[in-house]
């Protein structure tokens, strides 16, 4: 199909190509309103659409945003994060271009060069989970980090407020009357940033409640899976009755699902015998458990929107030394938390 050119519009409107260019690019000139209207009608009649590449060369803006990720496109939360970024881009008249690198540094560098050569108006650098990363070479100035932050603090970034989310989770259990609260954590050679921050929050709430944590209450799973969560929870349930937790805060919802299995396998009830709180509010997990899981929501959609709006200049970056905004993580209350069993509560009071 032959592309309609600006000369075709000029012929249909009976004007010069320079007049058509001035009208369609809204350039200030002494062209009459009648002529402007005739040019626009002619453009519509012949089906003319402007060449975005040529327009980008003239205006130095391509109305595109590049999003470079590691393996975000294959994670459970990717859809929400990308939806937030895409919605914000569309509302500001931009197209989002996603490049998934598979966490390959060579592919990442190639993707960054390609997007810079394409003259994207801004760029978003995203990771699968909350990380502190080294700034890749070649990123343009208008780059925002999504679900990660640069170690050198050279670019704006948005990450979940892991500490505030952890505080909300453990306070939910303390508020229900629990004193023996365990934390099912993740044990890896290099545990994720979120692990340390959520553990920090766990200890902070116990301290403010005057509870001395038993070291046996902090257990680790080898992976962030339901199977790993079950094994870790089994170790908690093997503790003597006077040390056995009445509540468990889990690193994520999948591990919480495994804790449910461990509790039910012992003939116990959630939340009647053991209350459980997760983290992530993962779709098809948290709300589908029996009973539905109380958890902390990771604000992936909101983070995607924030990153895009800052990249486009529609929102100011945070005025903090590291330029990092920590997005609130709200608690989602369902049915997995209740007061501790009467026997455990009485036992706690007797020891006190």
UniProtKB/TrEMBL annotation:
Coiled coil: none annotated. This is LacI family DNA-binding transcriptional regulator. CDD domains: HTH_LacI, PBP1_sucrose_transcription_regulator. The keyword Transcription regulation applies. The keyword Transcription regulation applies. Residues 4-59 form the HTH lacI-type domain. It comes from the Bacteria. Pfam families: LacI, Peripla_BP_3. InterPro entries: HTH_LacI, LacI/GalR-like_sensor, Lambda_DNA-bd_dom_sf, Peripla_BP_I. GO terms for molecular function: DNA-binding transcription factor activity; transcription cis-regulatory region binding. PANTHER family: HTH-TYPE TRANSCRIPTIONAL REPRESSOR PURR-RELATED, LACI-RELATED TRANSCRIPTIONAL REPRESSOR. Gene3D superfamilies: 3.40.50.2300, lambda repressor-like DNA-binding domains. Residues 337-352 have a biased composition (Low complexity). Keywords: DNA-binding, Repressor, Transcription, Transcription regulation. Residues 317-352 are annotated as: Disordered.
